[in-house]
Amino acid sequence: MEFLDAEFVQGFIRMADDGWNQGWHERNGGNLSYRVKPKEMESVKENFEAKEWQPIGTTVPKLAGEYFLVTGSGKYFRNVIIKPEDSICMVELDDKGENYRIVWGLVNGGKPTSELPSHLMNHEVKKELTAGRYRVIYHAHTTNVIALTFVLPLTDEAFTRELWEMATECPVVFPGGIGVVPWMVPGGRDIAVETSKLMKDYDVAVWAHHGMFAAGEDFDLTFGLMHTVEKSAEILVKMLSMQSCKRQTIMPDDFRNLARDFKVTLPEKFLYEKSNTAK
Length: 279
Ligand code: 13P
Ligand code: ZN
Hints:
Blueprint: H1 7-22, E1 31-35, H2 38-44, E2 54-55, E3 67-71, H3 77-80, H4 84-87, E4 88-93, E5 99-105, H5 116-129, E6 136-140, H6 143-148, H7 156-166, H8 170-173, E7 179-181, H9 189-198, E8 204-207, E9 211-216, H10 219-242, H11 252-262
Parallel strand pairs: 7-8
Antiparallel strand pairs: 1-3, 1-6, 2-5, 3-4, 4-5, 6-9, 8-9
Helix pairs in contact: 5-9, 7-10
The structure holds 1,3-dihydroxyacetonephosphate and zinc ion.
């Protein structure tokens, strides 16, 4: 099969374009990765042309031998739909999970996203915790979440609770809550380690003054998660722009009732009493 005809490749391209259309990917901002199923790899491997091995910059032994579809470093989400072979690539990991090699794409040169360590360490955590169900890691520069990292305390509790309060669907879509990484230098192993620690508890990690990482089973769920969190952040930004205090909101017992009816578990650490419930 032609590489670009494969359904997983088409799904990847569509998601990149959807992110671009949301305004989350100025210039080369953001990156996307998909852990390819063995069957999918087999269906396109006639197109492979392996390049030389390169160090990943971290070690992901539980992903040894796996294949990933990833956006290229410095490549624009805006261009993925018109020139995918220049903007994205498929990489293979070696048998130790220490090196990768490009087997398709980036035809005009380049390398996978500079956030490859974060993507792969997050994939490793999620593969283990979900018995292999999770396959997508998505990093986007979501405007409203970034804005909130200048005004909310940089804690998992504050971000989860404030975003839950902004839309009733939020505690149902991300019942586990969301984590926050303080500002760090992006693109390396240190931020990857901190982010992957949060991925043990959450499907979303906020990077202060930078953006978000989301993890999920497939393109729809992962894009939908990013979209839901960012929309909630947009509502909070709008609310705070009108007045700094809420006149009314969803209260801790309301969340408990919602959790019961929607059969989700909402950790009590997010349902703390606020000194002023209007805040
Ligand atoms: P890349 O172009 O290397 O993917 O980097 C973009 C980005 O968002 C870094 O955090
Ligand atoms: Zn970024």
